[in-house]
Amino acid sequence: GGQSTAASADVIKVGIILPLTGSEATFGNMEKNAFEMAYEELKAAGKTTIGGKSIQLLFEDDQGKQDVAKSATEKLVNQDKVAMLSGAYSSASTNVIAGAAQSMNIPILVTTGSADDITKKGWEWVFRGTAAPASKYTVALWEMLDQVIKPKTAAIVYESTDFGKSSATGFRAEAEKRGIEIVYDQPYEAGAIDFKPMLAKVKNTNPDMVFAVSYLMDASMIVKQSKELDFNTKLLVGGGAGYTLPEFKENAGEASEYIASSTLWVPSVTWPGAKEFFDNYVKKFGKEPDYHGAQAYATMHIIVDALNRAQELNNTGIQKALKETELTTIMGPIKFEDWEGYTNQSKPYTYVVQWQQGKLEVIWPEAVKSAPHVYPVPNWGER
Amino acid sequence: MSLFEAKNIVKRFGGVAAVNDLSFTVEKGEILGIIGPNGSGKTTVFNLISCFFPLTSGEIHFKGKRIDQVPAHDICNLGIGRTFQVVKPLKRMTVLENVTVGAFLRTNSMAKAKHKAEEIVDFCGLSQFKDYEAKSLPLALRKRLEIARALATEPELLMLDETCAGLNPRESEEAIAIIKRIRDSGMTIIIVEHIMKVMMGISDRILAINFGSQITIGKPQEVAGHPEVIKAYLGDDHA
Amino acid sequence: MKNKNLLFTMIALIAALAVPLLIKAPYQLHMVILILIWATIGTAWNLLGGYGGQVSFGHAAFFGIGAYSAGMLNLYLEISPWWGLLLGPIAATLIAYPIGLICFRLRGPYFALAMLALGEIFRILFTNLSVTQGAQGILIMPEITSKVFYYYIGLGILALTLLTTYKIVNSKIGYYLVSIREDQDAATSLGIPTTTYKIIALLPSAFYTGLAGAFYMNYVAFVDPKIAFNLVNVSIMIILVVMLGGPATTWGPTIGAAIYIILGEVFRATLGAANVLVFGLLVCVIIMFMPNGIIGTLTNLGRLLKQKKGWPGGTKHESV
Amino acid sequence: MLQSTRVSRIELGEVIMVLFGQSVVSGILLGSMYALIALGMTLIMGVMKIINLAHGAIVMVGMYVTYVCFHQFGLDPYLGMFAAMIVAFLLGCVIQKYMINVLVKVESILPQNQVLLTIGIMLVLTEIARLIFKSDYRSIATGYSSQTVFIADMSISVPMLIGFFIAIAFTTLLHLFLTKTDLGKSIRATAQDRDAAVYMGVNSSQITVITFGIGSALAAAGGSLLLPIFYLYPDVGQLFNAKSFIITILGGMGSTMGAIVGAIILGTAESLGATYISMGYKDLVGLIMFILVLLFLPGGLKSFIRR
Amino acid sequence: MLKVKNLNASYKDLQVLWDISFEVRQGELVVLLGANGAGKTTILNTISGIVTNRSGVVEFLGTDIAKLPGYKIASQGIIHVPEGRRLFPEMTVKENLEMGSLLPKAKAKRKETIKKVFDLFPILLEKQHQEAGNLSGGQQQMLAIGRGLMALPNLLILDEPSLGLSPVLVGQIFDIIKDINQQGVTVLLVEQNVAKTLSMCDRAYVLENGRVIMEGQGQELLNNEHIKEAYLGI
Ligand SMILES: Nc1ncnc2c1ncn2[C@@H]1O[C@H](COP(=O)(O)OP(=O)(O)OP(=O)(O)O)[C@@H](O)[C@H]1O
Ligand SMILES: Nc1ncnc2c1ncn2[C@@H]1O[C@H](COP(=O)(O)OP(=O)(O)OP(=O)(O)O)[C@@H](O)[C@H]1O
Ligand SMILES: [Mg+2]
Ligand SMILES: [Mg+2]
Questions:
Q1: In chain D, what are the domain boundaries?
Q2: Mutate which of C171, C178, C189, C192 to disrupt the B interface (most B C-beta within 10 Å)?
Q3: Domain ABC transporter: where (chain B) (predicted)?
């Protein structure tokens, strides 16, 4: 908690709102770790002190609830007098935090929240660098589908959350453009034990591919039960989130083999520092970070970079500095641009990855692939 | 025409008949007593009249209108009030509030209802306790509160279920005095009581029932002398 | 007694009007606004639950409908979400009516569970229907940013809710509600159509819950089904707010809301990862040691201290 | 030409039948995974007559115990289940004895404050789990986790099948315990008339403690059965509270046979709902069924089973 | 055997017993009389520990049991057949009887005692697998008494056993009570059927409004003017 009501002269406060308790706390804490790790590295490099003022991170817990997120924002801005905000994990909380920041004219750099809307409202104080709009998670995937897979039919299953819905909407639109027939298209409520009724029905429609947007554990339940049903499709692609995480492989076991997913980051990307980040994180916290960690790590770098460049350490100064960002992070180059109705939205780099022999390999874009893609995937019986 | 008439009423609880083909009438201004052994169906008759239980068969008429199909809360509206054998005070309301709830049936005005309640509380000799929560009253007063609350709804027919039970002779006499005063104000009363002395002294007619059926009905002396009543209710030794 | 009440209300009102003069910090004012919202919902719930004894586990439905009304007006008709303050409560009331007809056929825990199920049904519907934008929720841009403005609107809503419940409670309806809570059979025998009166209590309760929901939407500017129709974070927290302060008391829900919001925020800001744990422990302790809430327990204590031993007729028994 | 359409029609018919069969089989198995959790709840609700919202949290505790047994001591989850049951039993006893029984004795305006107490307990248990285990998702991978057998083209998960038999076994055992042993009869007697049980020399407040303990142990067992196929995180219990209520009301409070039959009916309804309506609406099926049963069959299935 | 001294008891704020004192000696049949609501049931419930808000002394076989919890009192051999029967309606007749013999002493002889009870009430043997809730009132009353006997009590407390029974059954029940008493079981009885009970009991106490106002031999009281007036309606 902050005790000073006035901004102290010798610190630049950065407020970071994350779900540190509640059901999203796994990722909130991972991001907090990554923020702190990046901060310490940058501090060691002498970058956290600007003109005699040092950067101070203030973390606030939003418990994954949106009214608490609002309170946390109010507290950081009005009581702790932070110079800028960052964090915001779930889209719901991000909506609220970004809206509040916008109305209080405080720059905010969104770390993870990926609902399309957030950077589509023309909010000039809201920046999104390391997170793609949910419907753009699949840029690389579509390249690959167009060039390699050329599916005629596809099935979409997605969790009934903001992220799931946005992803499905994006996929549906792209499929329509290409004349791909959507043979199954339904949401499900996260946390189900038994997906077999749904999967059996998908199986009956016999799609060329399945596009599935799932949270961590639903993802492993879906592939495990697909295997149990002996439901073979040429490719099952996850729409980010669940299908790329270490826990996915752990829980899905053999059923994870050859499952593909689009993602924003993998440890094997070629951007400088990515591998070091991964290794150092594992060393420090004894756990593999996923793209959420990378987002937080990269975000910290963007913040420090912007603060260092800012002419004035007030809201407009920082806003201007952010706007002028051109920085290559472990998430790739970051540049806040206005495009396709988005404002202050960095263009995302997305990848398609595939589990091969228990390892997550990048299979698309061609330029950065770490292994050739396997397609069509063998039937369950033959894997 | 009688004020009240029950025609062949039957009530079964899962096969067992608690009230079995009972018919009787109540004339305006009279006090009808009902006696019968425990479990003979007296309270059930009250519950049937006040529509707390639906009839299995039969008809109930009040002021020439059939009332056995109306919802329970309308019975009171039509002018039939009752008390409960197992008293049901509104525990966390004061005595006055308890009675006020009853008085609200005939008025929407808070002032009028309160005024009426004060009168009735006085009438029943409860004014000393009017600001006490009902849960702190002893049984004798709770029973009197039952009467007061029912009176507040301005019934034409009042059903009293064992209002003297559990009262000592003096309290009992006070209760009887109140009942008589009620009768004198023109109300018709059906009363259930186990204490024969009370019943004999107060009733115009007595209905004796057993196993839900009528044994006999008539003047108190006749009923008390009826051999079957003696056998089933008063006890052989009593004869 | 009456004068004392009036005096207290006047003082409270003047104090409330002066709050923005005393609390200038927007963060503190924000907390106060949240308290106003929760106090409104709590007061509305209290009418049905505290006075009428009908414990609803599904008030999130009315809250959510209020919030969504404001959001959808803005989304579809592109009119100010402030119109939600009109539509929200009306929509909530209209929905409450059939809900009442269904659920009031049940008593006690069965009623509670049926309401719980209905709340969940609304959550699932709003998650899956596309008119409400499903799980995506609705985001609006607030036109006004001044906290003081929201404060006065929130205060007005709470004042209206308090006034309405106060009026209802101190009228025939209030007497009838309490009598239904105390003994439904006795109430019936006194000519009270219990279902009708339960619905009469439910409607304003839903109305003001919906109003609070609409205001909440205007203030927080975002709603999604997971949040608005949340069983634990809305439906149950409403009950907690009322129980903390004191069910069936005028000021209980307001005091409960203040405790809930302030402690929740203080814990969150100071206790780190253990904040919900400490809050949970506090809930257990308060319920176990103050089963009638803070006001309820204090008045009980006060009464015990004041009351003479025994009742005035006690001497009669001793003389027998 | 004619022939081929006929063939495809027959094939289509077969496909539809398999889909239906798969839904029903999945539903029955799914229901049996709910059964033990609901069995615990019906026991607690039947005897104590309270709405216990901490039930799911106890399921969660049981799952963590099994998880720890597996990872620390390499104990198979079906054995770890017994450790979980013991821990949950003790936990349940403590909750009933030192919290709920204390509250039952005080007078309050709204008796539902007991429900709030169980919510407090739920928060506390969940957050303690979070402090110890973080919010991480955890799971147990066993050799049989993904094993399946196929019967007439319908896939049947082996761990769910095991769960099915264990659920039936526990239900039968509980049924025998309640009907054949003195302790079991004392539990039923206490449920039916607490004071009357005291007249018979039954220490009924101790019985409520034991009952809460057994109910909790069953909940933990139900959670352990899920572990090989499902996963675990501190809030996992909330998934099961609503389902247990539905099953308890469906089967009739306190009825063991009602609980298992109710669980299977709910599982099947959810499964058919997911197949033929939408996976997103599957929980709606259960909730609507719940309200209908509350309104039209207040005694639950029990009223049929007893005849 | 049982000595009650200065017993007071209340329900919440309502005191219903005031300084009750009486005693029951070994082998006796003692009756408590009183109008409805006089507090008879409350006395019995206080003895058997159901009513907990109480003060005073209850001595059984020389030890004070007033502070014991209810279930321990039953294990001392005081068995209470409560007013309104209080059977376990969803358990069978046989299970209800078994519930009566939970204590070790009685459990050891469960089989024999059940046979004796069935001899006493043959109708129960016939209906042993039926749920108690479906029995007629009279049968339920027999079951309640039978369940009490299953515990092989030292002191049998019966609260209005003839309640709701047809006159013929009332006669039978009284005969059985007399029988039980003659077999050596001490009985404390509460009854509305004043004339009958007074004529068969050893001694009786008369209660009014929670106080003992009179005590004496059965026959003696039967001729008492107050009793005649208040309870026999003569
Ligand atoms: N709700 C009910 N369900 C089942 N049986 C009932 C119900 N109410 C009453 N009975 C039965 O109906 C019969 C008549 O009961 P009722 O209460 O009318 O007797 P009563 O004449 O008022 O007796 P008492 O003098 O003891 O008050 C009894 O056998 C009783 O057990
Ligand atoms: N659970 C209770 N709560 C409050 N008051 C009670 C309770 N049980 C009994 N009473 C009251 O206590 C007093 C004594 O009741 P008790 O049942 O002991 O009388 P009784 O002599 O057994 O009467 P009866 O002949 O009707 O059985 C009565 O006034 C009664 O209303
Ligand atoms: Mg009666
Ligand atoms: Mg009695």
A1: 36-234
A2: C189
A3: 4-236
Domain match, E13 and E70 both = yes
Ligand 1 near B220 CB (within 6 A): no
Give the 3-state DSSP-derived string for chain E, with helices as H, strands as E and coil as C: CEEEEEEEEEECCEEEEEEEEEEECCCCEEEEEECCCCCHHHHHHHHCCCCCCEEEEEEECCEECCCCCHHHHHHCCEEEECCCCCCCCCCEHHHHHHHHCCCHHHHHCHHHHHHHHHHHCHHHHHCCCCEHHHCCHHHHHHHHHHHHHHCCCCEEEEECCCCCCCHHHHHHHHHHHHHHHHCCCEEEEECCCHHHHHHHCCEEEEEECCEEEEEEEHHHHHCCHHHHHHHCCC
Is 60 exceeded by the pLDDT of residue B233? yes
My answer on whether E121 and E30 are in the same domain is: no
Q: Quick check: D109 and C127 CB within 8 A?
A: no
Report the predicted TM-score, pTM, of the whole model to 2 decimal places. 0.88
Residues E170, E114, single domain; the answer is no
Q: Which domain holds residue E101?
A: 89-149
Residues of C with CB under 8 A from a CB of E: 317, 320
User: Is the Cβ pair E86, D193 closer than 8 Å?
Assistant: yes
Residue E84 within a domain: no
Measure in Å the smallest separation between the Cα of D202 and chain E Cα atoms. Answer: 5
Q: Are residues E96 and E182 in the same domain?
A: no
Site to substitute for ligand 1 among B11, B42, B191, B207, most atoms within 8 A of C-beta: B42
Residue A165 is predicted with a pLDDT of: 85
Spans of chain D below 70 pLDDT: 1-13, 302-307
Q: Among residues E149, E168, E189, which one ends one of the domains?
A: E149
Contact flag E99-D179 (C-beta cutoff 8 Å): no
Same domain, E176 and E72: yes
CA of B41 to the centre of ligand 1 (A): 5
pLDDT at C281: 92
Q: How far is the CA of D108 from the centre of ligand 2 (A)?
A: 22
Picking from E149, E179, E197, the residue at the C-terminal end of a domain is E149
Instruction: Evaluate whether residue E71 is within a structural domain.
Output: yes
- Give the pLDDT confidence of B156-188 residue by residue, as tens digits: 999 998 887 666 667 778 888 889 899 888 899
Q: Predicted confidence band at A146 (pLDDT cuts at 50, 70, 90)?
A: very high
CB of B161 closer than 8 Å to CB of B154: no
In chain E, which residues have pLDDT < 70? 12-13, 36-37, 136, 163-168, 230-234
> Do E185 and E163 belong to one domain?
yes
Classify burial at A182, counting beta carbons within 10 Å of its beta carbon; exposed 0-12, middle 13-18, buried 19 or more.
Answer: middle
Q: What is the pLDDT of residue E167?
A: 60
Same domain, residue pair E37 and E53: yes
Q: Shortest Cα distance from C145 to chain A (angstroms)?
A: 6
User: Measured between CA atoms, how close is E31 to chain C, in angstroms?
Assistant: 23
CA distance A163 to A93: 12
Mean pLDDT, chain B, whole residue set: 88
Do E144 and E169 have their domain in common?
Answer: no
Q: Given A26, A204, A229, which is nearest D135 (Cβ)?
A: A26
Number of domains present in the structure of chain E? 2
Per-residue pLDDT tens digits for C164-205: 999 999 999 999 999 999 999 999 999 999 999 999 999 999
C279–D112 C-beta distance less than 8 A:
no
Higher pLDDT, B236 or E109: E109
Level-2 CATH architecture, domain B4-238:
3-Layer(aba) Sandwich (3.40)
Per-residue pLDDT, averaged over A108-116, amounts to: 91
Do the chains contact at A162 and C31, CB–CB below 8 Å? no
CATH of the domain at E162: 3.40.50.300
Of D38, D36, D27, nearest in space to D300 by CA: D38
Q: Which residues pair with A54 in a beta bridge?
A: A11, A49
Tokens representing A186? 């339904």
What is the model's pLDDT at position C309? 40
Task: Kindly indicate whether the ipTM for this predicted assembly is greater than 0.90, answering yes or no.
Answer: no
